[in-house]
Amino acid sequence: MNIGIIGCGYWGPNLVRNFSILDDVRVLAVSDLRTERLDFISRRFPNIKTVTTDCNEILRNKKVDAVVIATPVSTHFPLGMEALANGKHLLLEKPMTATSEQAEVLIEEAERRNLVLMVDHTFIYTGAVRKIKELVSSGEIGELYYFDSVRVNLGLFQHDVNVVWDLAAHDVSIMDHLIERPPVSISATGVAHFDRDIENMAYIAARYDGNFIGHIHVNWLAPVKIRKTLICGSKKMIVYDDVEPSEKIKVYDKGVDYLKNREEVYDILVQYRTGNMMAPHIDLTEALNRISREFVDAVTENRKPLTDGQAGYRVVRILEAANSSIKQGGKVVKL
Predict the structure, then answer these.
(1) Does any domain span residue 278?
(2) In a designed cystine with 127, which of 11, 30, 184, 282 is the match (CB 3.0 to 4.6 A)?
(3) Phi, psi angles (nearest 5°) of residue 173
């Protein structure tokens, strides 16, 4: 399979590296508007025949079977449509598009042409999230009560998207993957300290049918780097700390039994359960290695990938609603 990669900024070279090591794949061409990035790619990957500032040399190259796009989100839709129009399978960096309407159009176009459309929701392919998914699906955690995540650090300030589109996309994709159903409403608050149009910190609340709630805090203006998620179930609780070098997941056999005497309405008993903590073994395979393999296998097997266009659409829809809520002062947006 011949692959062309458009965009060689922060993430692009990692994609080039992971696709290059697959035995049944050849990275045929790489494109970026900056010649210094192309010089870097040429030095590091001398076997790539075509490095160009014109992405049309990839999009219209009949030898290219699939295109990977790692450019600013505002360009995903036009580049993605051009790739599909030229019969290329498509892998898009997160978030999939700038609007949910654009995502729907790409999904329809890919289905009409029988092409694979995949989104690089990186964390879904990490060993940690794969293990959490296994624990949740097996019923070991019990009925899920809440998803509470914090993703903060100092920088990297973006010039084209706010912190919701930049950082929250990761946590929203993880939440969507674990819960397997969409929220019914989104509310969010945020503030822009330096650019009135680009919020640098935000809080997002996602309400679901039943008693489940999701909460996400993202911030570019924090003194420390925190990547921590709490997942509470009726049986056990999970702490996922992505900054932790070894024990990224800790499963606590802790919880609460809430007992209410039917005869005495005010007779309420709360019993606390305190058990052991377990840190399960985590597969340390690089997520991008799994992503590149999944994309190629989805193409060769003519099937939908794990993070297909619909997964990308669901994430964009939540981000879009959160952004709308922020602009309206925290108003609840129904989905």
Answers:
(1) yes
(2) 282
(3) -65, -40
The answer to whether 15 touches 22, Cβ cutoff 8 Å, is no
Q: How are the residues of the chain apportioned to helix, strand and coil, as percentages rounded to the nearest 5?
A: 35, 30, 35
Domain count, the chain: 2
For residues 34 and 137, membership in a common domain is answered with no
The answer to whether 291 and 18 have CB atoms below 8 angstroms apart is: yes
Query: Do residue 245 and residue 292 come from a single domain?
Result: no
Enter the tokens of residue 154. Answer: 């100092």
Domain range for 43 is 2-121+287-306
Name residues whose C-beta falls within 8 Å of residue 62's C-beta, 6 or more positions apart in sequence.
none
**Residue 292 one-letter amino acid:** S
Strand duo 185-191 + 201-207: pairing? antiparallel
pTM, rounded to two decimals: 0.94
Identity of residue 20: S
Beta strand pairing status for 249-260 and 237-241? antiparallel
State the pairing for strand pair 221-233/237-241. antiparallel
**326 and 218 in a common domain:** yes
List beta partners, residue 2: 26
DSSP structural state of residue 254: E
Kindly state whether residue 221 falls inside one of the protein's structural domains: yes
The CATH number for 53's domain is 3.40.50.720
> Of the candidates 88, 20, 103, which has an alpha carbon nearest to the alpha carbon of residue 55?
88
Q: pLDDT 10s digit of each residue in the chain, 335 long?
A: 999 999 999 899 999 999 999 999 999 999 999 999 999 999 999 999 999 999 999 999 999 999 999 999 999 999 999 999 999 999 999 999 999 999 999 999 999 999 999 999 999 999 999 999 999 999 999 999 999 999 999 988 888 899 999 999 999 999 999 999 999 999 999 999 997 789 999 999 999 999 999 999 999 999 999 999 999 999 999 999 999 988 999 999 988 777 666 555 555 566 777 889 999 999 999 999 999 999 999 999 999 999 999 999 999 999 999 999 999 999 999 99
The helix/strand/coil state of 222 is strand
